Amino acid sequence: MTDLSFTEEQRDCLQELINVAMGLASDKLARFLNTFVHLQVPAIGLVNAAEIPEQFRGQYQGLNSSMISLGFFGDGGLRGETILLYKLENAGKIAALLGYDDDATSEAEMLTDISSILTTTFLNGLAEQLDNSFSYAAPRIISSRDNDFISKLEQTAFHWQLALKVDIRYELTDYSFDCNMILLIPGEAVLKLKTILDQVLAEF
Amino acid sequence: MALTALICDDSLLARNQMKKSLPADFDAEVVTATNGLEALAVLRGQEIGVVFLDLTMPELDGVGVLEAIKAEKMDVFVIVVSADIQPEMQKRVMDLGALAFIQKPVNTDKLSAVMHKYGLI
Predict the structure, then answer these.
(1) pLDDT tens track for A98-113
(2) Facing residue for A41 by CB, picked from B12, B16, B58
(3) pLDDT value at residue A186
(4) Which residue in A has a C-alpha nearest to residue B61's C-alpha?
(5) How do residues B50-108 score in pLDDT, each as one tens digit?
(6) What domains are defined for chain A?
């Protein structure tokens, strides 16, 4: 069986690349919302993708949650899917800030916008540091106003081997909202990622 | 006399990037710290000429370090090297007395420009 585990050096390297990418996404969010984002060290964890639904069950069970998927494709077989998860009550706060009307049409639009700011900016920042460039599939709203999203997460995670969990807490000046970002990466892309991380490490 | 530079970052990669990016003509001994508390312990224990300071760190963040440096009137140049590039954060650290702000990832060109500007090399 292929070894998909990361060494401590590889994990530290990935964490720092993620920090830099997160900084770019936070800056963009801050400018978009015209507020200040308090940046914390994001917790990252690498887990078997099959374990993902269980990991989020406790946090989101029974709540109206939103889940937006974005597929990404890079050079050299580096590809995967990101899922942005957050509670719908948080989406309402952002909707108000952004000036969206509270109806279903603009909600889809708003979710796509937030996903674009947080996920695409993050991934572009990550790709640049990996000396790669990503192209993207159209964002897909997997779940919204739906409390049975764990089963949907199961169906999505099923296709992938490794999941990189990035727990992000965006604290804005006036309030805070939590969201989780999950990067789902297939096995061969994990091997590619490990090779790239080793190259980055070898430079320093 | 050569001065001592302190590199403070929780990431090993970032500390190594920083060391590697130091201009060749920068004649200094380099010590490291992995969070703000460690950095303050170093600053209180020995004479440091310049600190390359990350902001987002566990235990005590870079802003906390800057506040302590200011409160204790330490005589040290601080160059912030951070991924948190929001204008408000840049203003905040400059107001707290940082000499300059460098956006991560750091490289020799960015570092040389800043260090030349302030006569560190």
Answers:
(1) 777 666 666 777 777 7
(2) B58
(3) 83
(4) A40
(5) 999 999 998 999 999 999 999 999 999 999 999 999 999 999 999 999 999 999 999 99
(6) 8-203 (3.40.1550.10)
d(CA A35, CA A28): 10
CB contact under 8 A, B88 and A30: yes
Among B13, B21, B34, the strongest candidate for a mutation testing the A interface, having the largest count of A CBs within 10 A, is B13
**DSSP characters for B24-75?**
TT--EEEEEESSHHHHHHHHHHS--SEEEE-SS-SSS-HHHHHHHHHHTT--
Q: Do B85 and A19 touch (CB under 8 A)?
A: no
Q: Is the ipTM of this complex over 0.90?
A: no
Domains contained in chain B, CATH given: 3-117 (3.40.50.2300)
- Closest residue by Cα to residue A196 from A127, A94, A111: A127
